[in-house]
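Is zinc ion placement plausible here? Inputs below.
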Amino acid sequence: MIRVTLPDGSIKEMAQGATPMDVAKSISEGLARNVISASYNGTTIETTTTLTTDGTLVLYTWNDVAGKKAFWHSTSHVMAQALEELYPGIKLTLGPAIDNGFYYDVDFGDQKITDADFKKIEDRVLEISREKHEFKMRPVSKAEALEVYKNNEYKTELISNLEDGTITFCDHANFFDLCRGGHIPNTGIIKAMKILSVAGAYWRGDEKNKQLTRVYGISFPKQKDLTDYLELLEEAKRRDHRKLGKELDLFHFSQKVGQGLPLWLPKGAALRDRLEQFLKKAQKKAGYEQVVTPHIGMKDLYVTSGHYAKYGADSFQPIHTPAEGEEFLLKPMNCPHHCEIYNARPWSYKDLPKRYAEFGTVYRYEQSGELHGLTRVRGFTQDDAHIFCTPDQLDAEFKNVIDLVLYVFGSLGFENFTAQVSVRDLDNPDKYIGSVENWEKAENAIISAAKDKGLNYVIEAGEAAFYGPKLDFMVKDALGRSWQLGTIQVDYNLPERFELSYKGADDKLHRPVMIHRAPFGSMERFIAILLEHTAGNFPIWLMPEQAIILSLSEKYENYAKKVLDLLENHEIRALIDNRNETIGKKIREAEMKKYPFMLIVGEEEEKNGTISVRQRGQEGKGNISVTIEEFAAIINEEINKTLKQF
Ligand SMILES: [Zn+2]
Ligand SMILES: [Zn+2]
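Reply from A.M.:
I modeled the complex. Tokens:
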């Protein structure tokens, strides 16, 4: 008998050689029908793998991330089989599951795969799937594996790096592939499959190597899941922030300025400014003070901070000056500058905490292939702040920062989020700088604050930064995609490196604790996420223009201007469209530009001193005729729905 421990802590006594599927059956037939993968003592296995020792078993269904991974990775085997049949002589390399689907990197030799071929490959994959072939693992010797793949230099390279006795193939139908395992029971549960795209990919990601073709696909246990997924992809395309940024005149990239360096157009700059003002106001209430620091700093500053040793080689290289030996770095982080602000004078424990905030622009060198719209750029502005406090104040400060982050999310319509506490990997203590005692203090402070604030959080070992543990918020957007926003980080390391101190009640010098935090993260990335989350329909308080005045003809220009003046008196941001166009065309364009309110003015309105209000996206409802005062009340009510006081 073996003892199998399940995630809920219960123990099943099973016969030696029982399989995960046997365990599932012993729990319930329903579970057995849905189990598609398993892990034993942390290693992914098949549901048919025999268990020979005591251990901890996790059973996965399609609803688990690990279940989906097994499903998608298994489909990549089937796709590889179809590709080999349809393109004889190709060389297969690696075919892993990814976050959404899977890919297979293939050397197609002289053959070519195009969009037009996708359908026939998908058809063949589904045909094989319907035949319900089992996935079976088979151990092979290294010599045999090398012999089988003697004409495939990629697999040969992979096999050469493996120990004899650990090599396995996975068989299904008459196909086999080098693989270490993690498959669904059989091909029959793959009911829908789509090839999403093909792209070039260097072998092992190294551009010195040969370029292969990466075939991306996705598969599902139900046709409807695929249909839903493809609709989601279409919606994501419609909401792509690069597309919306252009349509709404927010930002622009110029090859002359440089890749990954966004240029903010007037409307985008106004949007950013509004976000900054919003956060500055809340931060002021929370006791932060604004500071300003330069865009560059002496290289030594970053040698002191440790950033240079860690990231120097992959960053923008030092800037030289006419002075011999003088070197500056573009600021990759604001923290060292803020440490020096703290160091500008001596402090007593009675002065703390000090909270320094800055919308600080930083520069990080990203590979050009990694750049993506506003989400991966080379220059960006962090809504950064550093809190310097005593160890006793750490808990309270951490909780205050969480309150601020939650306020930001609430005001911007991010309702759905979870938190992740990133702690050390205890097996790799050398990865981190700072004392074990300090790390423990910091980790405990974060966990207690997360608990106290009722956050829905998970603890991830090994995800901490090299200088301290952190709390990250994972926000779900309107399309169900997760984004990491709002990092809060405890740091015992920089205070040490910059020799920060304060005089305690005991009259002795002590090190303050430092907290790094950025609710938005970066303005660029945050605006990209907000654009895709709202499809450009920002909360009304944030809109660069809250209303557009549409005149029925040029005759009413003077009245339109009068309305604009009155709106400005009520602090409502508006503009006039006085072109000689039909009102229908003006409305359509205003809808596309996402103006929340369209205010139509003509003879009737001028006579009565009113405006005819039409709300975006409510074409069926007809216009309402109101005075400016009444309209101001409507807009304020809309604003108060999302923008609360901090
Ligand atoms: Zn496999
Ligand atoms: Zn920092």
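Short version: The CA atoms of residues 35 and 61 lie 5 Å apart.
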